[in-house]
Amino acid sequence: MTALTVTTYGVDTDAVVDGLVGEKVASRIAAKDATLWGPEAEPEASIRLGWTDLHETSRPLLAEIEALSAQLRSEGLDRIVLAGMGGSSLAPEVITRTAGVELTVLDTTDPGAVRRALADRLDRTVIVVSSKSGSTVETDSQRRVFAAAFEAAGIDAAGRIVAVTDPGSGLAELAGSGGYRKVFLADPNVGGRYSALTAFGMVPSGLAGADIAALLDEAAAAADRLAGDLPDNPALRLGAALAGGKVDGRDKVAIADAGSGIVGLADWAEQLIAESTGKLGTGILPIASGSVDDPEVAHPAADVLPAIVGAPAQPPAKGVVVAGELGAQFLLWEYATAVAGKLLGINPFDQPDVESAKKAARGLLDATPEPEAPAFTDGVVEVRGSAGLLDGVDSLAGAVDALLGRLAPDGYLAVMAYLDREGPDAGLADVRVPLERRTERPVTFGWGPRFLHSTGQYHKGGPAQGVYLQVTGAPAEDLEIPDRPFTFGQLISAQAAGDAQVLADHDRPVLRLHLTDRTAGIETLRGILR
Question: What is an annotated GO biological process for this record, any one (predicted)?
Fold first, then answer.
């Protein structure tokens, strides 16, 4: 088993760590001391610290998951679909991709992506419907369309649905009254982004075939070190590296992998860090980097801290290297994020700005307004922008230039693509690195609506440094949502428009590009954005 280590290069964390040791921050987190983040945070913190001992409290799940898995396999049910968003989907995706087992993660409202999931081996499919609140609109919509598909195929839908939710939620009630195959009730004292080792992470991963007992063992092996008030505590060192540079303007972290064997940890850590710290005008912007050769890692700006997971051939001149098994890494980054919250003076367990985009989307769905006319159309791209952004602009290239011209020296660009991340639209993500080279500033890339449950909090609540490029596309074919007055196409459109509206209300510059032909539009954008 690889030892859990955090090594800093060119970053002096000693004084900050000594202060954390003196305040017994690590042991107080482990003891669930809700006073650590101040009186305003105490009510929320008091019901959000159950993650510290999940390596013990989640053990009873193992037998339940194995028993259900054996039942499903005996019935020839070997395809697991996960319907979940944010904290309900990101950890299972990392766990299963790292383990090399198949899990279909459905964390989108794009009609094409949902259709593709429905069309694949329905006769062998079990869907895990995963939602803390039980009312997440994306997850409920996915549940509805799968249930209808099962029934249309002559399959008993209830026998193919497994629910993971908090006690007392609407989903828990529905699962009970509807006779769902199994209901797993998660620990309500764990927030979604800290829930990797709860039922939300363990159930879909275990049913898909990952060794979830090993994850708990890995976390358990690291738990005492992470709870210790000692200068070599990896969580204190990582937390100090993340937040300790804030006074010097270092408020961004680029997370890249260097042969760790863990697949996609940066995407999970992105939500954890962004949603936990991005509020009250402060925070740490995480950048999920693809490679240690990407500009923000290889040649970081002064306000960016490279964080490399694994064993790089060449350590960074200034940055941090993190090594350890996946279960230990989950616990490490959770502790470090809680420590960073303490250093930043914020509550790392709430997400006050996440709901704003959801409310705006619901309002648009209820009102069904006429679509906003574009400022202009360039080929297959309709162009819209926040107030003043497109004054005097009449071309797509000019609109992009206008947005990038708003980038401040300490700013970042967020590309937000409300498209199909695993289908023909996936190549759009390739624009991130060229945009970094073009702007010489950090660039994040998020697939909507999943990033609304992740970096969306930072966009609205963090520092007013960002400029935002939103890309939407006309679906080739829409998809009805059973017993709902809107389709998947209308839902994702409302989510995008609502997000843009809230960003504009926060005086964030937003350029909105709608592709009337996705294939041609993506090719156009890949050329213009480089």
Answer: glycolytic process
pTM above threshold 0.70:
yes
**CA distance linking residue 510 with residue 466, whole number of Å:** 9
Rounded to an integer, what distance in angstroms lies between the CA atom of residue 276 and that of residue 278?
6
CA distance 431 to 165: 37
Three-state DSSP class for residue 126: strand
Closest among 274, 207, 290, 187 to 463, alpha carbons compared: 274
Rounded to whole angstroms, how far apart are CA atoms 406 and 467? 7
Give how far Cα 120 sits from Cα of 125, 141, 157, 176, Å: 8, 18, 16, 27
Complete domains list, the chain, with CATH: 5-24+229-344 (3.40.50.10490), 53-215 (3.40.50.10490), 352-529 (3.40.50.10490)
48 vs 44: CA distance, rounded Å: 6
Residue 66, both tokens: 């194995």
Cα 530 to the chain's mean position, in Å? 25
pLDDT of 315-371, one tens digit each? 999 999 999 999 999 999 999 999 999 999 999 999 987 777 778 888 878 877 777
CB within 8 Å of 414: residues ≥ 6 apart = 443, 444, 445, 446, 455, 459, 466, 467, 468, 469
- The residues, ordered by sequence, that sit 6+ positions from 124 with a Cβ below 8 Å of its Cβ are 76, 77, 78, 79
Strand blocks (E) in 33-172: 79-83, 104-106, 125-131, 161-165
| Long-range interactions of 175-181: CB distance < 8 A, separation 24+ | 181/68, 181/126
Per DSSP, the three-state class of 22 is helix
Q: Do 414 and 459 meet the contact criterion of CB atoms below 8 Å apart?
A: yes
Largest CA distance in the chain: 66
Give the C-alpha separation, 228 to 52, whole Å.
Answer: 13
